[in-house]
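Running co-folding for manganese (II) ion.
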Amino acid sequence: MAGLMTLSRYNLQRKREYEGATGDFTLLISHLALACKVVSREVARAGLLDVLGHTGTSNVQGEQVTKLDVLSNELLIEVLNDLPMVAAVASEEDEQIRLTRAGRLNGRYLVCFDPLDGSSNIDVNVTIGTIFSIRKRDTVGREATAEDFLKAGSEQIAAGYCIYGSSTIFVYSTGDGVDGFTLDPNVGEFVLSHPDMRIPDPAVCWSANVGNARNWSAGTHAFMARLTSGEGRYKKCSLRYVGTLVADVHRNLLQGGVFFYPGDQKSPKGKLRVLYEAHPLAYLVEQAGGKASDGVRRILDIVPDGLHMRTPLIIGSGAEVDLYGELAGAT
Ligand code: AHG
Ligand code: MN
Ligand code: MN
């Protein structure tokens, strides 16, 4: 058992480090991990159950909702509903925030999540993920409101994701480094497999939906031209694009690389959402030594004006995020 550093043991060890820690946060993380284990199981057998395909409805984003979107959303909410320390959740799949049963008045924590990221990849068996962000609120004693969520990303106290790929890996940070835990399906536990993740400096790959290039600004084109120039740092810089934000960011976090989903003529604010995609992933990537911007501002400085506000996102190895700012930031 000595070598088996599970997520639960790791959290208990960390709790001991924080004097006065109540264990609330440890309980919250372990419940998020539980929900991700169940989502992982449902994702793995989606083809066997009637959970592939679309529900025939669309969400607040106007996007088609898949059955696994709904299933994972309801799962996460159900798991958090009975935690007295959680006051409310904000989900990609729900227009408004949802107050929890147990913590709506006195819960200190707010949780934002994208229950299933990369939905378009579900039916074709390509890696998908779950993204979460944890904040504290200063309105304990009354019911939380949407305004309690609309704060800068730097106010997050933790963030993470779970990636459902060839293995299921739970990656999170509480502000002093990033650690990854791989699910051992035989034990049913997340085991520490990627301690203190640090993003490598040379960007060995870049990720973007080049299918949108006709709408990109001249600056974004100049950025892509530099990445594909084959010169200097970019002698070997391959294009890798999964179409699941979690998968592209996870790979770039491990190998070094930059992901960009810029604003363009068609969608000036880009596609990705601040509260439950850009903020949490920016928090993690910065904790791992990388950067994240909207081309002009640091993502963590953005204060969203709505639960589903979108932002352009350039995230990964710091030098490339800076280069985008130089070449395309003002545009
Ligand atoms: P979601 O499935 O939660 O709506 O997120 C999908 C996002 C993100 O995962 C990915 O990076 C991006 O959509 C891909 O967009 P395109 O298909 O336009 O490239
Ligand atoms: Mn998403
Ligand atoms: Mn989603």
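Result summary
The mean pLDDT is 93.
Helices lie at 7-17, 24-44, 67-81, 218-227, 245-255, 274-287, 318-328.
Job closed.
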